[in-house]
Each structure stands twice: as structure tokens, then as C-alpha cells.
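Inputs:
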Amino acid sequence: MFDERSNGETAMNTRTWKTLAAALTLFFAIGLAVSPARAQEAIEQGSAAIADGTVKITNAAGSVRVRGWNRDSVAVTGTLGAGSEGVDFSVTGRETRIRVVLPRGASQELRGTELVVRVPEDSHVAVRTAAADVDVDSVYGVVDAESVSGRVRVAGSPRMVYAQSAGGDVDVEASSKVVRAESVEGTVTVQDARGYVEVSTISGDANLEGSDVWEGEVTTVSGRILFKGNFASNGSFYFESHSGNIGLSLTEGADPALEIVSFSGDVANEFDSGPAGGGSGSLVKIKTFKGSVRIERD
Amino acid sequence: MSHERYAQLLNDFVDGRLAPKLRTELEAHLDQCAKCRHEVESLRSLLAEAGQLSRSIEPSGDLWPGVAGRLETGKRRRRPFLRPRYAVAAVALLAVAFSLTQVRTKKARERTAPPVAVQQTGTGFVSLTEQWSRAEATYERAAAELQTALDAVRETLDPETVARIEANLEIIDNAIRESREALASDPDNLEVLQLLAAVHEKKLDLLQQATRYQRL
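Outputs:
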């Protein structure tokens, strides 16, 4: 709390005791869980951790749920999937590693571990999964979440977000200054964009919503692109697709300079601002090979 | 107001979007809270960093190494989408760089010189078509190498993932074919050329990304 932090040494002492208590609770009450968890068993592991350290999590299948909390410790709970050998939990310096261990040659059917990981809220978090869904919230550090086929969701206010899934959908609902979201064929949705945003897909659709989008790009090959909102003054943004349709629904007051290039797609534009510049000073370039372009007022 | 609540307002504070009363209150908090002051400095630094990027030809080139450095030191893989992603292709593309770097950024927007259709070389002038042919050959070589790498790990990948990759490679190859046909009928169309280059990059991205899937 604010009052605690403003009381100098007393606050430090309080914080130190809280940290120690949390660490002791984790070490002894949970038993530190040094031995790996067994298949079908509950997972309970934890350790003290640096407030703004890095937490790396790997889980092939199942789910990974990460939540920031106001403690200097990392705690893992959940259920070990059938066939999994255990959870490796290690702390080295600033880094905490959590890895679900599978037997060699384990098939997809054997996997399915549900992890809930609580991390210090200022942590940087990196998650890698194959089929497991990823959900990260309430973390203020950098979030880097990547899955092969699972869904990836990042929310809250991370400093930066990188979210990727080849087959799963990617949802970023974070008020971060820098967001990069990618999928091959899943739908990518970025909401509350307010800075630098980069969205990329091949065949997946791309949805971007924001009121103060400053700079970046949305690119697809065949996926549809939809933007809703407005661009920051003097910002610049680029939309590109080979065959996907591109639609911009601009809020009242939006007045970007629009530069539209389409080789063979239809273009419908309710705005008349050309490349000479719109009133807001922002520049939006839209380019498509054969997709249609539609720009309308919201 | 709690520290946590103040922390949630820092983004808006840096943006200058807080109401005057709230801003004054937060400034008072900043005077007493080193953690929040540090966060404000970090945000401003981040914005400055991103601002630098956005004014380069390839806006995403230098951002993620910094992020990666924070997440992992030493042995982290290079992200496949970092630009320039493919050094060899990038070198080949330098010859047509002026033509390809269309207005993605404000800096490019301010450029007054028209696209350059020909570039002088040591032996004379080389047409844009020829320059592009060289560049595209480089893209294709890079794609072939990555395809070989992917084939080597194919059996370790989930069949659904392989099917997904192949389906999307087919979408990309169709796009390349259509763009090439358009370019054949309109060789000076720089916009189509840029779209074709972008699709090539998507293909390289996908292939390189796919080769990493078996490492988890």
C-alpha cells in the first residue's frame, strides 16, 4: 500500500518480514516439493524470487495460467497430466524455471498438465507450449508467450507483449506500449492498442482495436484485417494483405492521411483525405493485391 | 489511493493523458515512490527506443533483441521475424532498396525523391527487373534451405502442425504466383513488387518458425 511504502524504514521492515513469511510458507508449509510431482497428482511448488526477475515456463500440453501477485515469490499449483514425469522447478539468480518433464517419445495423448503460476507482478514472463493454452494477466514486466497450437491470451498492463501461436488464436487485451502478436492461421485480436503494434498472420484474421494507435503494421497473406478506432496524432500505420479484405472503421474525429493501393481489389473510402495529409497529421497506408479495402466512419 | 492503483496509472501519466488533479496526485506519489519513478523512466525510455525504431526502414529491427536480452541472456535463439531476418537476402535486396522501401514510416513519407527504377553498378545500369530477379533468387535459396531444415525435423512434429504449415505454405505460394503473373504484365509496378517481397518474407518466417516447433 501507498502508506506503507511512504514510511521508509518501517515499511522496509514490514516488507522484509512479509517476504520472509511468504518464503517460509512456501518452503515449509508446502514442503518445498523438491521431489518431482507424480502423474495425476497435484502440483505444489514454490520459492522466493526476485521481484523483477524472469520466470520461464515450459509445458507441452494442457494449460499455463500466469498471474502476477504482490509477493516476492513464485508459486506453482495445478495438476500433473497423465504420463508426465514431474515438474522441474529451479531458481538461478534472477531466473526461475518451471518445466513439465515428459518421458522421451511421449505422445500427445500422454500430455495435459494444468499449471497455475503466480509470479511477482513485476516479473518478466516467458512461456513456451506446444498444445497448451496460455493465459497471462496482472504482470507488469515483459510478457513473451508462444504456443504451437494452443490459444494465447495476454491481459493487464505488461511493459511489452509478444504473443504468438501458429494454430491457436492470439488475444492481447493489454494496455502495453509495445505489442507484437502473431499467428499462422489463428485469429489475432489486439484490443486497447495504444502505442507500437505489430500484428502478423498468414491465413488468420487480424483484428485491431485502439483509440491511440501510434505506429506499427498489420500484415496478412489471405487473412482479413479489421481495424476499429483511431490513430495517434502524427502516428503512422501500415496495413497489408495479399488477398485478405481490409476494413477500417474510424471513430469520430479521425482524420488520417490515407494512402490506398490495391492492384485489383475494390476500394470504398468514406474519407477523402489523400496522401497530402489529413488534419490529424497521422498517415495510414493500406496495400493489398486483390483484397477489397473499405474505410468507413464508425 | 494505493501504490498498485498509482502503478496502473503510469502509462497514462507518461502519455500525458491524466486529468490535472490525478496527475498532481500521482506526481506527489512519485516524489515518494522510487519504484514508480523507475517505472516512469523505463516507460519513457521504452517509448524513446520504440520511437527510434519506428523511424527506420524496418521498424521492428532492433526492438526485440532488447526484450530478449531481458528475458534471457546468452543462449536465446534469434527470433525468426527479426529484421533484417535473412542477411543474404537483405544484401541482395540492397540493390532495389530504394524501390522497395515505400512509405511505411514517417521518415519514408518525408522522402521527396521518387522511387529509383534503375541502380548504377560498376558495370553500368541494371534494370529493376533484373535486380529483382537476383533478389528473388536469394529468397528462393533461403526458402529451399529452410525447407530442407524443416524436412529434417518433420517426423518429430505433430501431424496437425505439419498439415497446418503445408496448407499455409500453399497459400503463400499461390500469392507468390499471382504476384509474379501481375509483375510479368506490369514490370514497373513497384507496389506489386513490394507485395511480392512481403509474401516471400512471410514464407521465410513461416519456414523458420516451423523448424523450431520440435525443440520444445
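Remarks. The helical segments of chain A are 2-5, 8-29. The longest strand of chain A covers residues 225-241.
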